[in-house]
Design a protein that fits this description.
This protein is an alpha/beta fold. The protein has 16 helices and 7 strands. Helix 7 crosses helix 8. It is elongated and about 70 Å long. The protein starts with 8 loop residues before the first helix and ends with a helix.
Length: 348
């Protein structure tokens, strides 16, 4: 639904140049972190091509019939492939199934008689199961005439190498904090735009998610908690952990938000040991705390290894319905015992 692609001029320019130079590959892989505009770009490309626009920015008049049909998912020349709905479970399936790719084959076959360009968007391609990936590979090996496949991939390494090799890649990059702050301000987020830009790591989508779930408050709570090291305030730690135990709702999952905040904190700690305290700060006192807890590359490696190990362990525990507050508390207590955390007393 986003009307324009923001801050991805290089990717837009590369596609427009290929299309206008008659070098339009039949399959494109749109990669980059979540929330930087991959799906926005895919839909903008579809509107631009099907409406016959020549704008170098991929802009299309929203009142055009093609644009209205695409917005309503009723454009006959466009198919969206995504995880299907499971009626029995009452939720989306965990993967894109082979049946969805078979629908894509039928779409290309049946619409070929009408002539003209046909476009498929796969969102996200790295959610395909093995059977679906193999079926898609056959399409890529023998692409239908006038067919274009746009594949969104958050983790392209999960795709078959043979799929990646048959696609042209458009990599979308995280936006710098200053540009992010400008975009968030345009979206009506003024007061917290700069810290949100810092915490979301260049992803507009992630910044909006954090803003909607109170992510900055949770992050400030975490920074204040770690500021009590090396003598961890256990009461404050318990309060932080309890915040992960709420019920998931329309605004999001408190456990997922908590692990995301911890991941961001540990990642920024690791970077601080290599490049110095982050600017801009995402919370009050963050810079001074990170300078104390991560003064060198040795500390950076410890924090980075802890992030990968403990985050995966917590998410695996949640997947088997372990208590979310206990999982977070265990994670915090283990982090508090790491050498950089205990050494911070002598560094202060």
């Amino acid at each position: 639904m986003t009307p324009r692609v923001i801050g991805q001029d290089a990717a837009v320019g590369a596609f427009v140049e290929a299309a206008q130079g008659d070098r339009l590959h039949h399959a494109w892989l749109l990669t980059g972190p979540r929330g930087v505009g991959k799906a926005t770009l895919a839909w903008a490309i579809a509107r631009w091509l099907l409406a016959g626009s020549d704008s170098p920015t991929l802009s299309v008049d929203a009142s055009l019939p093609e644009a209205r049909r695409i917005a309503a998912l009723s454009e006959p020349r466009l198919m969206l492939i995504r995880r299907p709905w499971d009626d029995k479970a009452g939720r989306l399936r965990a993967e894109i199934t082979v049946d969805e790719i078979r629908r894509l084959l039928s779409f290309f076959h049946l619409s070929s008689a009408e002539g003209g360009r046909r476009i498929a968007i796969i969102d996200a391609a790295d959610e395909m199961n093995t059977a679906a990936a193999n079926a898609l590979l056959k399409v890529l090996e023998e692409p239908p005439a006038d067919a274009l496949i746009l594949m969104i991939a958050h983790q392209p390494a999960r795709l078959l190498p043979t799929i990646r090799s048959r696609c042209r890649t458009l990599r979308l990059s995280p936006l710098p904090p200053r540009r992010m702050a400008e975009i968030l301000s345009d979206l009506g987020i003024d007061e917290d735009a700069e810290p949100l830009a810092a915490l979301s790591d260049g992803s507009v989508g992630e910044a909006l998610r954090l803003a909607g779930q109170g992510g900055l408050d949770r992050y400030q709570q975490l920074v204040d908690l770690f500021a009590t090291l090396p003598r961890l305030d256990r009461l404050a730690a318990a309060g932080f952990a309890d915040g992960a135990a709420g019920r998931a709702g329309a605004e999001g999952d408190p456990f997922d938000l908590t692990i995301t905040v911890l991941d961001r904190f540990l990642t920024r700690l690791a970077r601080a040991g290599l490049m110095g305290p982050p600017l801009p700060q995402a919370a009050s006192g963050e810079g001074a705390l990170m300078a104390r807890l991560s003064p060198d590359d040795h500390a950076a490696r410890i924090w980075a290894e802890a992030q990968a190990r403990l985050s995966a362990r917590a998410r695996a525990g949640r997947a088997v319905n372990l208590d979310p507050a206990a999982l977070v508390m265990d994670m915090v207590l283990e982090l508090a015992q790491l050498p950089p955390a205990q050494a911070s007393l002598t560094k202060a």
